[in-house]
Structures are given as C-alpha cells and as structure tokens.
Amino acid sequence: MKKRTVAEPYKIKMVEPLKMTTREERRHNIWEAGFNTFLLRSEDVYIDLLTDSGTSAMSDQQWAGLMLGDEAYAGSRNFYNLERAVQEIYGFRYVVPVHQGRGGEHLTARIKIQPGQYVPMNMYFTTTREHIERAGGIFVDVIIDEAHDPQNEHPFKGNIDRVKLESLIHEVGPERIAYIWMAPCVNMAGGQPFSMGNLRQVRDLTDQYGIEIVFDATRAVENCYFIKEREAGYADKPVRQILREMMGYADAITMSSKKDNLVNIGGFVATNDEEFYQSLRELVVVYEGLHTYGGLAGRDLEALARGIYEMVDDHYIYSRIAQVRYLGERIQAAGVPIVVPIGGHAVFIDAKQFLRNIPQDEYPAQALAAALYVDSGVRTMERGNVSAGRDPHTGKHRSPKLELVRLTIPRRVYTNLHMDVAAESVIELFEKREDIPGLKRVDEPPQLRFFSARFEPLRSSEVFGPVKQ
Ligand code: F0G
Q: What is the pLDDT of residue 308?
C-alpha cells in the first residue's frame, strides 16, 4: 500500500499575524543589524528559524495551567507539580528549578568543578563551555570524529569516542575529571543523537573509574526518538520508556526547558544525589531564587510541568522530527550541501561547501544567514567561526571544522508551507551563490561574540547592495 500522510496531532486555536516586508526594507534592516541576525528585530522577521529555544507554541492545557499559578514565595503548588513530573517522566527524586538552562549549568559547574579539572563533552555548547571555563575547568571534546564531518552518514554522530575518553582518563588521572557532560542530540554537531549502546559503554567505563555523568538533557526526547527509529530493540518501545532508561544512566541532568519541555522560559537541575541537591539548594538562592521557584513564576512552573508530560507523546515527537526532515529533504533534493543525517531540531547548511570561494575568516555562514534574511525574511543562525569564538589563551579564532547555518524549527509553530518558503529561498540563493560576498568584522565583544558582533560585506553585491565608503 502507498505510504499515507501522517499530519500533526493538534490543530490551531489561536493565530499570530506576521508582518510582511519588502526586499528593500530587509536590506536596510540587515545593514542596521550589522549583518548579525541576532540584532534584527523579531517584528521584521517573517519566518523565525533563529532558534527552537523558548519559541514553542504551548497547548491549551499549558495556557490553562498559567491561570493556576500559585505565586507564593515559598512552596508553591506548581513546584510540587513540577517535582512530580520530573520524578515520573525523568525519574529523578530531586529537582531545582532555574530561570533557564544556563542558570543550571552555572550552578552545576560551580559545585562540581575544581579549578584545573577536566570536563569531557560530546562536542561543546557555547554556554556550557563558558561555564566550565569560568569555574576554572578545562573542556575536552571526546565526540567521535564522524561528528566533525558534515557528510558522514553515521546514525549516531553524537556518540562519545571511548578511546578518546579513556586516554584522557589515563593521561590526567580520574580524580582530575570533574564529570562527563554528555548532551543528547548534540546541537553543534547538527542535532545528532547518541545511541543507548554508546551510553551504556560510557557508563561502564566511568563506573570503573568512579566518574560521574551529567546530561545536558535539553533535547533528550528528540534523541530518544532517533533511538526508537535506528537502534535495534527499541522500535516497539514508547519514547517515554526510552527516556526513562536513558536517564537511568545519569547522575544528574541540567535542562533548558525552552526546548523539549515546550515552554517559553524555564529550566532545572535534577538528580538522585542528595548531597549535590543540598549544594544546589544553597547556591540557587544566591543566583536564581528560592529552591522552590528558581527565578520562575508559579505559572511558569505549571506550564513546564504540563509540557513535560506532553513532550513524551509518541505522535507529537514523530511529527516534530518529521517536519524537520521535510525541510531538510527538500533542500537536499536540490543539491544544497547540508549536514547528514538530518538532525532533531534543525537543518544545518554546510556553508563551507555552499560558499566555497569564501574563506572561513570571511565568515561564510554569517554571510549566508544574512543573505537568507534579505532574500525571504527567514531568520537563521550562524554556527561556525563566529559562534566558536576565540581561544582564551592564544586569542585566535577557533576556526571550527563545522561552518554551518542553522535553520531551527520551533515546536508546533509553523506549517510545512512555511518550510517550503524557507526551502525555496535556500535553493534560489544556492543557484545565485556567486553573488554572496564574504564579511569583515567591525565590532566584537570579548565573550559569546555571536550574540552581538557586527560585520560589513567586503564588496558590493546584488543581495546586500553597494558597499558603503
Ligand atoms: N544546552 C544546549 C544543548 C542548548 O542548545 C542550550 C541553548 C543551552 C544548553 C542553554 O539553555 O538557552 O535555556 O540557557 N540553546 C539555544 C539555541 C540558545 O538556540 O541553541 P538556555
């Protein structure tokens, strides 16, 4: 029988009109924004694929939950609902809410890292590495080599390379490893999952040396879907069950609830380790708020608790991944170089291949993101040389192997016609790629520069107009 279409398991109850702009207006806007899509006004954006973070559409159940916010300073009812959701779905006894993911990363890094200790990760994430380094730790990338190759079809490019990890342990000694910080659906690798088999191996190895595993569990559900799809023995298991198994291998998790958890703000740290929990309780009050609200309103805690139950619905997670794949396959079919396999939250264009004649120090991904905005009002994000920043010791660009533009899909927000608009814009620019010029830096902040650095084109072009003298 012919394969039948499976549509979204929800319908639209409320709409948010979008402003339409002209190419001339968008050209003006991108110059104003210093060719940095973070500096555009969201009002001037038609389809916002900047990030999947905090951009989800909440359900009617979540909106109803907002009205049940208990805004008490201490012991809010909604905190206990969140606690129960985390216990039932993630399987951790203790939970400390924080305002968003990096709040939890900050607390965890401060508590668990002694200066000079190492923190191996499956590739870096910007805020996570920043918190490791600020706590005096040393980040080490132990992801498999395949993850650094955009064309490699490995089904689990988020896997940790056991040999890299074990040689680090031997080289520095287990006591100098603070913990392993392992991310499901590795963002910077293109939303690539790790396998349960790999996780089990890493757990065996760390058990031998008494090293802890902390997950950055931000996109764990999406990772579980890929396990269901690709790993033997999981096809018939509900995602909810796969998630529980995965979490069983971690000593603690930090979580940005702005992704998997389907809320616009929030995060938490969860663990079964009472001592760590006590330290978190002491520190959270200094930086975020009391341990029963962690910088969130009662209503936010309620929406979060409800989002946690909704995210493990197999029909939902299927349609989420299917939409990302739909966009990716359309772009790929036109010959545009993208990271494969297509990841869980975004389609990543390989800007080095797309703009072969622009050297990496002329920021090809930044230029392509700017060009996409001018062409169609689609906002995307650079994930390459600008995001990777400079080495704190040498001051040089880190020049990462991956120079990507990320088209990130918010959850439950856009239709596949929006995906078509984005795909057509990418394809048309690919046909006219010779026109896109490289960029030069005109302003750069010292940390997390991708948020606010400013650029200008190196030459006049059709897409950006004449270079100003
Ligand atoms: N970990 C991962 C893997 C992330 O992708 C993010 C955020 C964080 C931690 C930090 O969480 O934003 O709640 O403080 N990623 C966003 C993105 C910003 O667009 O990829 P946060």
A: 98
Query: What pLDDT, on a 0 to 100 scale, did the predictor assign at position 447?
Result: 72
Give kind and range of the element (H or E) at residue 66.
helix 60-66
| Residue with CA closest to ligand 1 atom 13 | 101
pLDDT tens, residue by residue, 424-442: 999 999 999 999 999 999 9
The dihedral sign for the CA sequence 22, 27, 30, 31 = negative
Instruction: Tell me which residue has its CA closest to atom 19 in ligand 1.
Output: 51
Asked, as a colleague might, if the bond just before 445 is cis with ω within 30 of 0, I would say no
Q: What is the pLDDT of residue 250?
A: 98
User: 23-54 burial by CB neighbour count: b if 16+ within 10 A, else e?
Assistant: eeebbebbbebbbbbbebeeebbbbbbbbbbe
The token duo for 175 is 């006591």
CA distance 57 to 101: 19
Under CATH, to which class is 60-311 assigned?
alpha beta
pLDDT score, position 401? 87
Q: Can you tell me the distance from the alpha carbon of 432 to that of 334, in angstroms, rounded to the nearest whole number?
A: 13
Residue 390's CB is within 10 A of a number of other CB atoms, namely 15
Q: How many CB atoms lie within 10 A of CB 264?
A: 18
CB 404 within 8 A of CB 421: no
DSSP H or E segment with residue 108:
helix 101-112
pTM of the model: 0.95
For residues 402 and 384, what is the distance between their CA atoms, to the nearest angstrom?
6
- What's the alpha-carbon Rg for the chain, to the nearest Å? 22
CA distances 273 to 184, 243, 302, Å, are 21, 19, 25
Reduce the DSSP state of residue 332 to 3 states and report it.
helix
CA angle 233, 234, 240 (to 5 degrees): 150
Report the residue among 121, 126, 218 best suited for mutation to probe ligand 1: largest number of ligand atoms under 8 A from its CB: 218
Q: What is residue 333's predicted lDDT score, i.e. its pLDDT?
A: 98
Give every residue of the chain whose pLDDT is below 50, as ranges.
none
| Cα–Cα distance for residue pair 53/61, rounded to 1 Å | 20
Q: Whose CA is nearest to atom 21 of ligand 1?
A: 101
Return the CATH number of the domain spanning residue range 23-52+314-457.
3.90.1150.10
Q: How far is the CA of 53 from the centre of ligand 1 (A)?
A: 7
CA 204, chain centre distance (Å): 27
Distance CA 295, CA 287 (A): 9
335's tokens: 């010959």
Q: Where are the domains of the chain?
A: 23-52+314-457, 60-311
Distance, CA of 48 to CA of 300 (rounded, Å):
23
